[in-house]
Amino acid sequence: MTFSPQLEERFAKMLAAYPEGRKRSAVVPMLIYAQDETRAITPELIEEVARRCEVAPLQVDEVVGYYSMLHRQPLGKYHVQVCTNISCLLVGGEELYEHAKKKLGIGHKEVTADGQFSLEEVECMGACSWAPAVEINYDFHHHVTPEKLDQLIDALRKAQSMPHDGQ
Amino acid sequence: MKTLYNEPSPLETKVLSKRFGLEGSETLDVYLANDGFKAFLKAREMSPEQIIDEVKASALRGRGGAGFPTGLKWSFVPRTSPKPKYIVINGDESEPGTCKDRLLMEYDPHQLIEGILIAGLAMDAHKGYLYIRGEYRYLIEHMDRAIAEAYSRGYLGKNIAGTGFDFDLYTHSGAGAYECGEETALLDSLEGKRGIPRMKPPFPAVAGAWACPTLLNNVETFSAVPAILRDGGAAFAALGTPKNGGTRLVCISGHVNKPGVYELPLGYPMLKAIYEVAGGIPGGKKLKAVVPGGSSCPILKADECDIPMDYDTLAKAGSMLGSGGMVVLDETTDMVKFALRIMRFYAHESCGWCIPCREGTTWLRKILQRFHDGGGRREDIALLGELSKNMLGRTFCALGDAAAMPTISIVEKFAEDFEKRLASLMVAAG
For the segment A126-151, what is each residue's pLDDT rounded down to a tens digit? Predict the structure, then answer.
């Protein structure tokens, strides 16, 4: 498998970061960065990471099952993560999550039919003092109200329906 | 001035966060213009023993949650070992209620880097790994930029600032696992495995990353080190109370008018933090309870909160200062629902290695869910307490205890809420 030049550069740095003979250490970071490009952890990707990190594919496979951000099925292009843990719960996190379900028409870990959005009720993401919090892909949003979430989702939908710039 | 996530409070004592509002606080130039790397140059003239003594004198205690004396932890690493020694920085920040390491990395990455370098001098270590939770991708990239800037200006790499000291620092991404905040699970994760806790001893100081001596501290702990070396351990200690040195970033969330992260000295009165720093409870409602230091800590009832926030007072009150995540609950809070949400979290995050934790959290979640949904029985209240108590001390790491302790405290202190839920069901059932 080949990845974008930027990712290949990152992987080269990653493998050089750990002590001699410890390439296995790159397994988790390599998987999460690769997933951004491949959209999911496929069997082919597991083989590739195993080859690059010099471990057996099974040693990569067992890791995939453990970490909650690694996904074997593709997520939506925009993965909407709503926190309902205690700090968010106290200030409307649950209601926000219910609103997100209705707005997107999907439930926990589901993807919209057009593949644009997926939804996940997540555990604490470290935004407790600015709750309720939502993370869309890797972007944090603080003090999110149902109205603000609608605006965020509508803006992403609109961006999606714009014509592509020749790519 | 730059916009922060929350307005600072005039009641803060700003030591670690003193550069937070400065324009360009994340750049090396602003750091250097505001005391940056003075501490490193001073430490370079000291022996490792002197550095460790200064940290001991500061009475700094681990900010990740356990509150272990940092200087003592530093003294456990065998500096003369022929094996390579590593510095590992815990930026996995995942304890519900905690959101401070984010700010330390975002607003002052070079303070963290300097703290790591001073630890490197004290340990005779030349490599460091900054483990950052996967959800903080923007911070991994942010730290990568800060690290690249430090390399380009000679503050990382070979012959740092002309002192002849070499140190390499790398970021390492997690991928979603609360358990990886536990130090030995973090090390397994760093080695490319599932994050499963290790048997202790050996402690990481002796056999940590790749079975080599390893110093592992929280982001905030390392971020406090430059101030300690620059101004002296005694000066830092004097900010707090005996054996509880310095300031810490307290993350106040929940039912307060001004939730935010505020830097307060150890021993700061809890009620003052709630009512003055965080602006009190919205709508003039009454305080019901406080989770003092992240979801793992036993809950305090309102009448138990008139105490100073230091590790020892919290321990005496039967709770913990934890990771600084202070969650405030007003009188309207449904404690059954709150206990359930905590247990859903621990059941989800249990790594499954130890059966009392894996099974215990699952059964507690099921019982709490049933109780919450209206299928509760009176004997469930005692069962929740008994099950939780049977988990205590029976697991490799503290996750089992972290799930059990808040549950025991909620069931005991708010039994009335559980009774009320039962009574309302009986009325509903006629």
Answer: 999 999 999 999 999 999 999 999 99
User: Radius of gyration of chain A from Cα atoms?
Assistant: 18
Structural domain boundaries enclosing B313:
247-330
Report pTM.
Answer: 0.97
The residues in B 30-89 lying below 8 A from A, measured between CB atoms, are: 84
Contact B345 A124 (CB under 8 A): yes
Domain that holds residue A94: 78-161
Looking at the structure, tell me whether residues A107 and A42 fall in a common domain: no
Detail the DSSP E strand segments found in B298-391. 300-301, 308-309, 325-330
ipTM of this predicted structure: 0.96
Same domain, B296 and B272: yes
Quote the longest CA-to-CA distance of chain A: 52
Which residues lie closer than 8 Å to B129 by C-beta, 6 or more apart?
A: A17, B86, B87, B88, B89, B169, B170, B171, B172, B190, B209
pLDDT at A163: 61
B349 contacts A123? CB cut-off 8 A: yes
pLDDT of A27 above 50? yes
Task: Give the position of tokens 């005694």.
Answer: B234
Chain A nearest C-alpha distance from B53 (Å): 30
Instruction: Please give the average per-residue pLDDT across B243-257, as a whole number.
Output: 97
Q: How many independent structural domains does chain A possess? A: 2
Q: Is A125 on the interface with B (CB under 8 A)?
A: yes
A166 within a domain of the structure (yes/no): no
Q: Hey, how many other C-beta atoms are within 10 angstroms of the C-beta on A8?
A: 11
B330, B352, B379 - which closes a domain: B330
Same domain, B209 and B291: no
| B424 found inside a domain | yes
Instruction: Inform me whether the pLDDT recorded for A166 exceeds 50.
Output: no
Residues of chain B with C-beta less than 8 angstroms from the C-beta of A67 = 134, 174-177
| Chain B (160-219) residues lying within 8 Å, Cβ to Cβ, of chain A | 170, 172-178, 189-195, 210
Average pLDDT, integer, range B69-98: 97
> At residue A161, does pLDDT exceed 80?
no
Which residues of chain A have a CB within 8 Å of the CB of B134? 32, 67, 69
The DSSP secondary-structure symbol of B373 reads I
Kindly state whether B240 is in contact with chain A, defined as any CB-CB distance less than 8 angstroms.
no
Say if residue B49 is in the same domain as residue B136. Answer: yes
Q: List alpha helices for B12-108, DSSP H.
A: 28-33, 38-44, 48-57, 70-75, 101-107
> Average pLDDT for residues B60-86, to the nearest whole number?
96
Per the structure, how many domains does chain B have?
A: 3
Please report whether residue A72 resides in a domain.
no
Q: What are phi and psi of A11, to 5 degrees?
A: -65, -40
Beta bridge partners of residue B40, listed in sequence order: none
